[in-house]
Amino acid sequence: TWRQWLEGVDDQTFVESEYCQTYTELLNDDRLTDLLEQTETTLKFFIHPKFSEQIIHFGKVSPHVELVPMGSEPLNELLMSCKALITDYSSAAWDMLYMDKPVLFFQFDQDRYVDEVGAYVDLNEELPGPVSKTTEVLLHDVRTCIESGFMLGQDDRQKAERWFDFRDNQNAKRTYDFLLGKKY
């Protein structure tokens, strides 16, 4: 997710930011590399479009990590093709949950994010997926997700259901009928 406090900063400030350093350390963590290698899993790292030019600062990563430059793959296609999502605060989480796929929330800067941006849900209690604030906990959650066969857990599925009135292929029809009823 985009961090407003990093918008427009110079390259050096971005590289020194907690955001860049945390993700760089994660993407190059030997434990992650080993896990991905052992499970023959590829992790695709897609940075927020406002940071797309900054992707070069994440450096050389494991052969099982693919940095996805902006525009090389449409986000909707990435979401449809992947088995799980690791995100921080992105609304892409709801797209994944709608598809009944697990979401892991990595919120290493949650206090600052909530102070500066806010949140419309309780980030520690209401999110339909594990919330980790450290790389250590995230790596545990990733391992658990992989070992489950990338299945959305029952508790997380129940939390997700709260957010969806419908899970069918009739959304466009409902929208059309609503607009027609309002005479738009």
Q: Biggest sheet, strands in spatial order? A: 3-4-5
Number of extended strands: 5
Identify the overall geometry.
Answer: globular
List the helices and strands in order: HHHEEHEHEHEHHH
Rg, Å, rounded:
18 Å
Strand content: 5-15%
Number of helices: 9
Q: Report the average pLDDT across residues.
A: 94
Structural class: mainly alpha
Distance between the termini: 34 Å
Major pleated sheet: 3 strands, parallel
- Contiguous low-pLDDT stretches (5 residues minimum) are none
Helix content: 40-55%
Word description of this protein:
By secondary structure, the protein is mostly helical. The strands form two sheets. A three-stranded parallel sheet has the order 3-4-5. The chain has a two-stranded parallel sheet with strand order 1-2. Helix 6 links the parallel strand 4 and strand 5. The longest helix has 13 residues. The chain is globular and about 55 Å long. The mean pLDDT is 94.
Q: What topology does this entry show?
A:
Blueprint: H1 11-16, H2 18-27, H3 30-38, E1 43-46, E2 65-68, H4 75-81, E3 85-87, H5 92-98, E4 103-106, H6 110-116, E5 131-132, H7 135-147, H8 154-161, H9 171-181
Parallel strand pairs: 1-2, 3-4, 4-5
Which key features would you list for this structure?
9% strand, three-stranded parallel beta sheet, 42% helix, 184 residues, 5 strands, 9 helices, single chain, mainly alpha, globular
Summarize the structure.
With 184 residues, the chain is mostly helical.
